[in-house]
Design a protein that fits this description.
The complex is a heterodimer. By secondary structure, chain A is of the alpha/beta class. Helix content of chain A is 28%, strand content 23%. The longest helix of chain A has 18 residues. Chain B has twelve helices and nine strands. Classes of the chains: A alpha/beta, B alpha/beta.
Chain lengths: 426, 326
Amino acid sequence: MSEILIQNGRVIDPQSGLDEVTDLLIRDGQIAGVGTGSGDAPSVIDASNRIVAPGLVDTHVQLREPGFEEDETIESGGRAALAGGFSSIACLANTNPPIDTPAGVEFIRQKAARARQAHVHVIGCISKNRDGKELAEIGTLVESGAVAFSDAPAPLASTDLMRRALQYCLMFDKPIFSHAEVPELSQEGIMHEGVTSLILGLSGMPADAEDVMTSRDLRLAESTGGRLHLLNISSRDSVEQVRRAKARDLHVTAGICAAHFSLTDEPLRSFDSNYKVNPPLRDQQHLDACIAGLVDGTIDVITSGHAPRAREKKMRELDLAPYGMVQLETTLSLVIMNLIAPGHLDWSSALAKLTCNPAGVLGISKGTLAVGADADVVIIDPDVEWTLSLDQLASRSQNTPLGGRLLRGRAETVLVGGEVRYGKPL
Amino acid sequence: MNTAAADTEPLDIPPIPDWWNRRHLLDTESLSVKEITLILDTAEQFKQITDKGRRKLSLLSNRIVSNMFFEDSTRTRTSFGLAASRLGADLIQFTTSSSSLSKGETLIDTAKTIEAMNVDVMVVRHRTPGTPHMISENVGCALINAGDGPHEHPTQGLLDVLTIRQHRGTLEGLTVAMVGDINHSRTARSNIWVLKKLGAHVIVCGPSTLVSPQWESIGVEVCYDLDEIVPRCDVLNLLRIQFERQYTRPFPSVREYALLYAMNKERMKRAKQDIMIMAPGPINRGVEITPEVADGPHSVILHQVTNGIAIRMAVLWLIAGSQESH
């Protein structure tokens, strides 16, 4: 019988509403209890002035393996997750080959188990070969362990296929993850269409491209009764649409990438391709609307939207550089700096969007400190200031514009199943 | 004219002032009024010298200029080439068809390779906004943007303004309209910044699919009716409709465009007596401008071409003349 006592931390478990300075006892890889006086465990972690929370959960990251190992691998992505405080991540199917067969799901699960970093959950393709035409064998993928279905980061352009996917997934009670974008409106643009894109002459992706698709997806979720999760909303109108849908008790959830409540399109004036992401960084009005959506609960989930791309791919002309930003290792800091510090969200509600809410969307029993749950725990130093150094990123890629920035707050220790996998060993 | 005699006359080029510290010319948006004025005045001096018949100077005789055009261009490339050779610089012509880009080399590797040949100034044209900025951050030599997609074409904006200044003495208080595909026009952007800084009132005019109302947020008047603005304008700059840049046709037909926006004889009748007609070229005769207007007494289109060489000489001199050789 092995016991670890995490002592004297501010223990926050958003699911149960717990938020107090106390001790957390772990026994045999599971949460054994909360409260002081559980005294004489052989291993003790002092968590004074630290926050102790369920290990963070990410609904969608790109791990790029198999096929694009120059960007990231299951091992390096899992390591980056831990460095960012995430103990569970779900990976998108945009690999080569795409994850549309049980063998693909199995490959990722085995690789992840061997890597012994963060837990990796697999998102299967909606369409065969992720080409947006015919349904993949979703039932078989569910059997082999896929937790959700998505063709993201590509949008599902076919309305017919989206409708069938929502209907078909109903019988497995699995969610469809939608990247809401009308491709013919966004035209593979470089940035948000607005005043900044007009001045720079860069091709714009209008908010309409997101909003029209959000509208379609919400409509289809309502008519089919299917489970819809909007992966990464970024525009004022999409937030409002989700708000209205929830007011009608529609069973939909929505997520946001940390970049979209932290950065506007203004820095694209530097022409730095690290700011090229999809959905694009929008202007201050959209950003404010997203924060309002986080505050009133319209947006349930915060995700890193981790999209690693090798340097040689990003160091190209802006139209040739791929979308994406590595974010696993900076998301928690952005939440602390841009949501908690200004008082938009308190710790418990911010952590809910990083723990129990994404776990609920994924349908996995994570993101909780309930007795008997797997002891996936993060210990956060909320005040430490640190400078992001690109060559110290655990991720294989360095495509972030935050290099050299002073950040605040970060994960100090991460336990997975009661084992310290990140931070100072016991 | 005896050019040999002209070549022996002493040069009257004032030294580059100490405050001038630009390594690159990437845009006009960031230029100060002082910098713009220096460029225009310097161009004027070069123009006077070359107008007197002097073909070639030796101011940049120890410099190498590379024309790096990743997009088709005849006029601008020739103009920069001529400007460089008149200053006595050596010129490398680099075009995509003759490059390694088709062999998979990245743009930055190509630029570094050219730089390693001890090039002092790169003149870059590229289809994508920001590419000259990206290259400038990766090489040590000076860089001049010769057009980056719809973003900017600084020497075009400067030469247009030089042309207006020559005819009117000042930009202050003039009303200058640009007509056409404003959203996709680098010429429009480079003009707007310089015109506004020098005190002109700027109007942008064209089909509503090609002229965003958001132009107003930077202090430019937006109007969709050419007939309404013609009587108010001191200068009309008729931009070329760039068929190659648009994904979907933003207007129904060339015929309808010409009906609504071509500057023709009838519209000229309602214009001010001294209106200046400009076009950056190449012009689509019969689309944005009819031949009798393009070749008429108000047209300064060919002055623009001549001024282009003077502006490019000025920019090359200010940028390469003030720096240590490679």
